[in-house]
C-alpha cells in the first residue's frame, strides 16, 4: 500500500489565535505515521483565517480519521474538515 495525501481545513475558534502557534500544536498532535508536508491559509471572513495543512498518512483503514480526531482535540480549534483526498 502507499500513502494518502489530504488537505484538511482547520478553523480556529477566534481571529485572535496565533496561527504559527496553532500550526505547531497541530504538528505536535499528529498520530504516528502521519506528517504535514505543507500548510496554506484561507481567509474566511471577519478577520478569521483557516489553516489548511496538507497531511500525508499511510493508506490503511480509517484513512484520515485519526488525524481529524487529533486536530479537533487541539486547543483553540473550532472545526476540522477534509477538503481533498488523493493518493500520493
Structure report:
The structure is a single chain. The chain has 88 residues and is α+β, with helices and mostly antiparallel strands. It has one domain: Ribosomal protein S6/Translation elongation factor EF1B (Alpha-Beta Plaits), CATH 3.30.70. Helices cover 22% and strands 49% of the residues. It contains 2 helices and 4 strands, in the order βαββαβ. It has helices spanning 19-29, 65-72; strands spanning 3-12, 35-45, 48-58, 77-87. The protein has a 4-stranded antiparallel beta sheet, covered by helices on one side. Strand 2 and strand 3 (48-58) form a beta hairpin. The longest helix has 11 residues, at 19-29. It is globular. The N and C termini lie close together (11 Å). 14% of the residues are buried. The model has no long low-confidence stretch (mean pLDDT 93).
Brief description of this entry?
This protein is an alpha+beta fold. It has two helices and four strands, in the order E-H-E-E-H-E. The protein has a single domain (3-87), classed as Alpha-Beta Plaits.
Mean pLDDT: 93
Query: CATH H-level name... which superfamily?
Result: Ribosomal protein S6/Translation elongation factor EF1B
Q: Helix fraction?
A: 10-25%
Query: Class in CATH?
Result: Alpha Beta
User: How do the SSEs run, as a string of H and E?
Assistant: EHEEHE
Strand order within the widest beta sheet: 2-3-1-4
Q: What fold name stands as the CATH topology?
A: Alpha-Beta Plaits
